[in-house]
């Protein structure tokens, strides 16, 4: 038996936004994707984040994706990403998302230009006020934003009304996950974007993962979460191998993720300039999709 935990690790799927051949948002396929994931045993969906190419969406498109995902999966299953380079835009998106009925939101830190902690605090305070009681997740991704969120800053952010969790991406290992868990109140949700590390994350004090790969292959991640909860070491090792295979084949490449979804009939187009997977990678992805 492995170390026991008291609750099943959380697995949220970071969903891609699907486009037609002309590059327009394919709303019917967005609905089909989220409706399918709603029955896959996941804890919810992280919508219009990095995996959703949010930088390539205008505000109306992002809101339409929120509305469609919430209609397909239920508003309680959706974490709508409202983050933007400016607080003004993020607040506008937040108010609109709340009017659509979303109850859980996330916002990436300010990005591109460096922001000091006081500016980051003000940014989230403005969003939290606009959220009017909805849950709000801090999205920390220093590798692409240029703005770190150390544990001391997260502790201050966690004092703001409505801020109930954090998603950490782009950081290897679990040291910062442990620091986040220690710096925040009981019940604060600490999620990692390193989907391969689900078991290590929860044993370090985290709550679970946000996984892009699970948008195409939810089954291995759900099985791993259940195995970790059960304490069955052999079941966990087997489930971890399947997760490692899925992450190894698809990785963090949105085009590869959409190639995997293409096996199930979804459109594969990306808006952002992302390298397509080689045929050898596509073959491995097809094999995994046919034997989840």
In brief:
This protein is α/β, with parallel strands linked by helices and about 290 residues long.
What distance separates the N and C termini? 25 Å
Give helix % range: 40-55%
Shape: globular
The first-level CATH class is given as Alpha Beta
Record keyword descriptors for this entry:
single chain, 292 residues, alpha/beta, TIM Barrel, eight-stranded parallel barrel, 45% helix
What does this molecule look like?
With about 290 residues, the protein is of the alpha/beta class. It has one domain: TIM Barrel. Helices cover about 45% and strands about 15% of the residues. It has 12 helices and 8 strands. The chain has an 8-stranded parallel β-barrel with strand order 1-2-3-4-5-6-7-8, surrounded by 6 helices. Helix 9 runs antiparallel to helix 10. The model has no long low-confidence stretch (mean pLDDT about 95).
